[in-house]
Specification:
Strand order of the largest sheet of chain A: 6-9-10-3-11-12
CATH topology of chain B: ABC transporter involved in vitamin B12 uptake, BtuC
Number of domains of chain B: 1
Radius of gyration of chain B: 20 Å
CATH class of chain B: Mainly Alpha
Largest sheet of chain B: 2 strands, antiparallel
Number of helices of chain A: 19
CATH topology of the largest domain in chain A: Rossmann fold
Structural class of chain B: mainly alpha
Shape of chain A: globular
Strand order of the largest sheet of chain B: 1-4
CATH class of the largest domain in chain A: Alpha Beta
CATH superfamily of the largest domain in chain A: P-loop containing nucleotide triphosphate hydrolases
Number of strands of chain A: 24
Oligomer: heterodimer
Largest sheet of chain A: 6 strands, mixed
Number of strands of chain B: 4
CATH architecture of the largest domain in chain A: 3-Layer(aba) Sandwich
Helix content of chain B: over 70%
Largest interface: A-B, 34 and 27 residues
Strand content of chain B: under 5%
Radius of gyration of chain A: 25 Å
Strand content of chain A: 15-25%
Shape of chain B: globular
Chain lengths: 529, 320
């Protein structure tokens, strides 16, 4: 089966060379300058990596290249011809495809149908779908890329995450793409799946395909990329040949700004008493045997990769998921929490990473959002008290520095930063004992980030213990008193503030090191596994 | 206070009220009978059953729920009431209570299906609708029951200050519900649940409990309407309330409720019911063939919702 029929047009375009260039690209979203005069390029036979923290503008940049967003300013050229993509379809016609992090497939359809979803070949007078053709061609590609175990007739539902990604890549190839964008492809892959992906990418490269590769994992980029561009807060910090830059320098560019500007020196007075003690907490679906504690007024950072189980752990402590074993002790008292309502009564509150989906009532007013968990504070014998509502609202708006002229404005009209301040601030009147906050600054601009940090610090100072889940290392390092790193549902490392370093946290997070076998001084391990 | 007034205008009631007046003025030109108090009394008496149910339906819609079984439930409760009096010889107050309880029970089952067994509300209540319609035929043998005690008939036929009792009943219920929804803590809950159930759950609200109670209330309202219907007509018909569910949901939506939940008001929903009743009345008075009623009702529904969604997107209240 290895000799592919060469009479048929190749399913991936090995033919034409392509070069795409972006100049001075700017894009503004309400409240955020997502991209500010960014230059970027990639051409056939190259892998150009794009790195940066969350919110740096990587996704926006590739969305512009893929026609999902349209830039406000600047030029995009393909083979030196000016072009503006007004839809993903148009970008696809020019050979641009994205392989999404969470596979963007039709789960109930077969692999072949997914691969050819956009251009099902037909036959005969009745234009019936030529299933044999799509199955054969899909099978050919699967074999070619070393995955004969995936069959074109498999239903996508039955595939693993890694296999789904391969289907996505093959789908991109069937569209004759010559630019393929990988958006954090390895975030959901196991190490061996990652190796397979890399060999596929190398194959593609040899076949004249241009590749844009987004990742948080800098060690990967050293392995796979030819060029790397580093974005920070929407600005291009540097574009370098991969051999001319090392991981430390990349991190420096990514973090860029002086950490001290954002994170004032922490002077938390951490109490001795343990507010939260978790012992051997289990949930076979998400994590196992989790034990840790948080002291009064302490901010404990939870680092780890996507899928490490941090959010699920948080939601279990909050009563949204049920633990199958283990104990949770709050304020010295053994507690069992069956639902969020009980957690809140115990003094545990949770701010979700998906604030629009899970944190806010976006089509309701600021006022209604702020009172939503505090209805008992603003009622008297069950009757809403307008003066109390107004007091609470205006107090919160001032305290959180929410920029609005009217508490009746709808939340969906606010910027991400202001929305986040509401999602967090609605809990303040409850004086929580433990605040669990998940990715507190995702999609929030730098100014609002600082304000969120200030609020968190103030809360800690006032004695609230904080469990902070974050994928942004500077946030963990700058804000937290202690860091716990999770990998694959387990706690893989704990660091005191004095031991904080991005490399060390990354190592724990990627599972390459664990407490026993770690040698802190061998930094170069990162690039060689 | 002025600001509050503005907010009120942005909700659907005010434009709806204007539209209502426009229809009334138009009506007075078209038909000399339209503005007579007898005609108005007839309109309001005619819409009283829908009005009783729309109160509960509105709260349910606000919470993101949905109930197609109210029409069947109305017939069922009326029949239970009739059977309790005629076949079991129960005193009429006891029969009324039994009927309202049976209506509530239907709502409770709906609530259980939706909140405990995760059946989609459309499916759950659609299934319930056919089940209950069938139950009505089973218990009645497809026969109407009539000749109820005078005291019982008074519920539906009597007047206080020259206003028929069914109108009093729905006015009182509207006022009560409106007070709860606007001023009480529990009145906020359906809005939170309907606006974003996940966020509501994570804000500590007992989402399932709230949804369950709202389904039960909807059943209860259908039960009350069933009793009033039986009393007013001095008869319980197997086909009572046929088609009421869609008429009521349409009226609530015209009145500003959203099928996706989170918004709506009882006064708005009531105005929706009144508007539809007035338009129908006008069509009858002007001798438009009855076949056109559905055409007009559907057009008003689509027009009102279409206009509202369009203007919301224009204002940017919703991102399309």
């Amino acid at each position: 089966m290895s000799d592919v029929n060469h009479d048929k047009p190749a399913l991936y375009s090995a033919g034409s060379l392509i070069e795409i260039k972006l100049k001075n690209i700017s894009k503004k979203f309400p409240g955020v300058q997502a991209l500010d005069k960014v230059d970027f390029f990639v051409k056939s036979n190259q892998v150009h990596a794009l790195v940066g923290e969350n919110g740096a503008g990587k996704s926006t940049l590739v969305k512009i290249i893929a026609g999902i967003e349209i830039h406000d300013d600047g030029t995009l050229t393909i083979n030196d011809k000016d072009i503006v993509f007004s839809s993903p379809r148009e970008a696809q016609n020019h050979g641009v495809s994205i392989v999404h992090q969470e596979a963007d497939l039709f789960p109930a359809l077969t692999v072949a149908e997914n691969v050819f979803a956009n251009n099902l070949p037909t036959k005969g007078f009745l234009k019936t779908v030529d299933f044999r053709k799509i199955q054969n061609e899909t099978n050919e590609l699967l074999v070619k890329f070393g995955h004969p175990e995936i069959k074109s007739t498999d239903v996508v539902n039955s595939l693993s995450v890694g296999q789904r990604q391969i289907v996505e890549i093959i789908k991109a190839l069937s569209l004759n793409s010559n630019i393929i964008i990988f958006d954090e492809p390895t975030a959901v892959l196991t190490p061996s799946e990652t190796d397979i992906l890399f060999s596929i990418i190398n194959d593609l490269k040899k076949n004249n395909i241009a590749i844009i590769y987004i990742s948080h994992r800098l060690e990967e980029i050293k392995k796979i990329a030819d060029y790397v561009s580093i974005l920070k807060d929407g600005k291009l910090m540097a574009t370098k040949k991969i051999n001319n830059i090392n991981t430390d320098e990349m991190i420096k560019f990514m973090v860029g700004r002086d950490l001290k500007d954002i994170f004032e020196e922490s002077k938390n007075k951490i109490g001795e008493e343990k507010i939260l003690e978790v012992k051997n907490l289990n949930n076979p679906k998400f994590f196992d045997n989790i034990s840790f504690d948080i002291k009064k007024g302490e901010i404990v950072g939870f680092s780890g990769l996507i899928g490490a189980g941090r959010t699920e752990l948080a939601l279990t402590l909050f009563g949204f998921y049920k633990a199958t074993g283990g104990t949770v002790i709050l304020n010295g008292k053994n507690i069992t929490i069956n639902n969020p309502s009980e957690a809140i009564i115990e003094g545990i509150v949770y701010v979700s990473e998906e604030r629009r989906e899970k944190g806010l009532f976006t089509d309701m007013s600021i006022k209604n959002n702020l009172i939503s968990p505090n209805l008992n504070h603003v009622t008297n014998k069950g009757i809403l008290q307008n003066d109390k509502i107004n007091n609470l609202t205006s107090k919160s708006i001032n305290q959180l520095n929410i920029k609005t002229n009217d508490a009746e404005n709808l939340v969906l009209k606010l910027s991400g930063g202001n929305q986040q301040k509401i999602a967090l601030g609605k809990w303040l009147p409850k004086n929580p004992k433990l605040l669990i906050i998940d990715e507190p600054t995702r999609g929030v601009d730098v100014g609002a980030k600082q304000e969120v940090y200030k609020i968190l610090r103030q809360l800690a100072k006032d004695g609230t213990s904080i469990m902070l889940i974050s994928s942004e290392l500077p946030e963990i390092i700058g804000l937290c008193d202690r860091a716990i790193v999770m990998h694959n549902g387990k706690i893989n490392g704990q660091l005191e503030k004095k031991d904080f370093s991005e490399e060390l946290i990354l190592k724990y997070a990627s599972g390459y090191a664990n407490l026993n076998s770690l040698n802190i001084n061998t930094k170069n391990n990162l690039s060689h596994e | 206070m002025n600001d509050k007034l503005k907010k009120l205008i942005r909700i659907r009631e005010i434009p709806l009220l204007f539209f209502l007046f426009a229809v009334a003025i138009l009506g007075s030109f078209i038909s000399p009978y339209f503005l007579l108090s007898a005609n108005f009394s007839a309109i309001f008496l005619g819409l009283s059953l829908d009005a009783i149910i729309v109160i509960a339906m509105c709260m349910l819609l606000i919470s993101g729920g949905f109930d197609l079984s109210v029409g069947a439930n109305l017939a069922f409760s009326g029949m239970i009431c009739a059977i309790a009096m005629a076949n079991f010889g129960l005193p009429w107050p006891v029969a009324c209570i039994a009927a309202i309880l049976s209506g509530t029970l239907v709502g409770v089952v709906n609530g259980l299906m939706v909140t405990r067994f995760y059946v989609n509300p459309l499916i759950a209540t659609l299934g319930m609708m056919t089940i209950v319609r069938s139950l009505v035929l089973i218990v009645s043998g497809d026969r109407s029951m009539s000749s109820f005690p005078k005291a019982f008939q008074w519920i539906g036929q009597g007047k206080i200050f020259d206003i028929p009792n069914p109108i009093w009943i729905f006015i009182i219920l509207v006022i009560l519900a409106e007070i709860v929804l606007r001023t009480m803590k529990i009145g906020r809950l359906p809005f939170f649940v309907g606006s974003n159930a996940q966020a509501a759950e994570l804000s500590g609200l007992r989402v399932k409990k709230i949804q369950f109670i709202l389904y039960a209330i909807c059943g209860c309202a259908a039960g009350i309407a069933g009793v009033v219907s039986a009393a007013r007509l001095n008869a319980a018909f197997p086909l009572a309330g046929n088609g009421a569910e869609l008429r009521i949901i349409a009226a609530a939506v015209i009145g500003g409720c959203s099928l996706s939940g989170g918004q709506g008001s009882i006064v708005g929903a009531l105005l929706g019911v009144i508007l539809m009743a007035m338009i129908n009345n006008l069509l009858i008075l002007t001798g438009v063939p009855i076949y056109w009623q559905g055409f007009v009702a559907g057009s008003v529904l689509i027009g009102a919702v279409g206009f509202d969604e369009y203007s919301k997107r224009k204002r940017g209240d919703i991102r399309s």
